[in-house]
Amino acid sequence: MHHPQITPKFAPEITPSVEELEAQERRLVFRHFTYDDAWALGTLLVELARERQAPVAIDIHRAGQQLFHAALPGSTPDNDAWIDRKRRVVERYGASSYLVGARFRAKGTTFEDSARLDPDTYAAHGGSFPIHVENAGVIGTVTVSGLPQLQDHRMVVEALEQFLGE
């Protein structure tokens, strides 16, 4: 007996592959990154989050200095702790926090089980993305915390694509 395929009311999120995540990072590169760029990118993220009523905190760091921070309604101090943990992963690995976690999952393990790093200090969960400048490498991070990790990651990528005119 043939059963008609049932279409789910909401399509499940498709998890991007390691290759797709690496391609995002190769594509989303800045020519320069100034204090004004940090303000403009942060403001763009705040606008995206407000449109969606997303309960997030947003952070931009460059060379150890916080250049932008915003906490939207519904966010909590815990989001700031997540930002710090995700940002440290990007600073240590030079790749997005989501990609670092995905690379461990692709090897059949987890960051928590295999990285040998304190999970109270490092979190390879989506939402922190490297600020990569041409001919300079990774000089900072842009981070969102407050949504499920793939949505945090996607919000940052969407903002970077708009900001860089992709």
TrEMBL record:
Q: Which domain of life is it from?
A: Bacteria
Q: Which InterPro entries match?
A: PduO/GlcC-like, PduO/GlcC-like_sf, YBR137W-like
Pfam annotation, one family: HbpS-like
Q: Would you identify the family this protein belongs to, as annotated?
A: Belongs to the UPF0303 family.
Q: Which PANTHER family does the annotation name?
A: PTHR28255, UPF0303 PROTEIN YBR137W
Record protein name field: UPF0303 protein BEK98_19055
Q: What organism does this protein naturally occur in?
A: Streptomyces diastatochromogenes
